[in-house]
Amino acid sequence: MKMSILLLSVIIIHTYFLPYGLFVLLQALPWFIPLLLIIGIRFLLIKRVSFKQLNINNFYIFLLLFDFSWMLVFWGLKDVMDESLVAVEAMIDILILTWAIALFPNRRAMMIATLPLMLSVCAIRLNAYPQSPLFPITKLLCFVAIVSTGQKIMESWFIKAVSRDVEKKKLVLQFRRLALIDGLTQLSNRRQFDTILEQEIRAAERNHNPLSLIMMDIDYFKRFNDSAGHSAGDECLIAVAQVLTETVKRPRDLVSRYGGEEFVIVLPSTDLQGASKIAESIRSALMSRAIPHPASDISPWVTMSQGVCQWQSGMSSEALVVATDEQLYRAKQAGRDQFKVTD
C-alpha cells in the first residue's frame, strides 16, 4: 500500500511537469477516484480490524478491485498522454514486481494481483501498436514465466529460512534448558537457583512480601553410595527429587539441586510458619515413600535434614543462603531427620 501511494505520487508529479501537465491531470482525475477510494477503504480497515484477519476470499476480492482501480488510472493516462506510453508501461511493471515480492508466500494471491496487470500492459501495447503484436505477447509470456518461477524459488528460500530460524530457536531453548537444568534429577541447577533467588529477593523488597528458603541434605548419603553403589545413589537422588516436586506445587516455588545430595527450595510469599509446614510435609512425604537406606544410623529409610530461614529486609542472597545453611547444620547436630528454623 505504501508503494502504491509512492507510485501514485510519482505519476502525479511526473505528469504535472509535462507540457500542459495540469490540464492532463484534470482530464485524468476521474480515473484516479476509484484508486483513492480503495486506498481510503484500506486504511479504514486497518483501524477497525487487522488486515491479516480478513477472510482470504475477501482479500482476493480486494486485490482484484485494487488492480482494477490501477488499470483505470493507467488507461486514463494512456488516453490523455499517448506520448508517455513507455512511462505508463514502466509504472505497471513496477507495480507487478511490487505485488510479486509482497505476495510470494501465497501463490494464488500473487497471481490474482499480477496477472490482470500483465494483461493490462499487453492490451495497452496492442492498442497502441496493433501492427506489432509479437512484442507485447512475448513480454506477457516472459513475465508470467518469470513471476511464476520466481515465486517458487522465493517460496523455497522462504521455507528454508523459516525452518532454519525455527531450528535455531529450538537449539537455543535446548541449550538454555541444559544450562539451567540438572541433568540427573531434572530439577533447576545451582545457576538457575542463584538467578531466581536474586529475582525473588528484589520482588520481596519491592512488594514487601515474605520470602523463605529451605535447604536440605540427605542424611548419610556418602554411606549410601559406599554401601549400595553410585548407580543406586543416583536412583535415590532422582526419587528424592520426585518427592520434592510432588510436595512443592505452587508455580513460583523453585526446587533446585544445590549440589551433591543437597537440595534447596525458594518459597516466595511464604513466611516462616508456612515454610515450616512445607518442611514437615517434605519429611512426611519422604517417610511415606520409604526409600531403603542400607547404612543409616537413624532409620532404615532415606531421611533428610532441613534448615528453614525467612529473608529479612536488607539481607543479600548470600546472607540468606548462609543463614539457612546454619539451620541445616543445627538439624544435623540435633540428630538429623528433622528441620530447624531461625529464631
TrEMBL record:
SUPFAM superfamilies: Nucleotide cyclase. The keyword GTP-binding does not apply. One of its GO terms (molecular function) is diguanylate cyclase activity. One of its GO terms (biological process) is cell adhesion involved in single-species biofilm formation. The chain crosses the membrane at residues 5-22, 28-46, 58-78, 84-104. Its EC number is 2.7.7.65. Keywords: Membrane, Transmembrane, Transmembrane helix. It comes from the Bacteria. This is diguanylate cyclase.
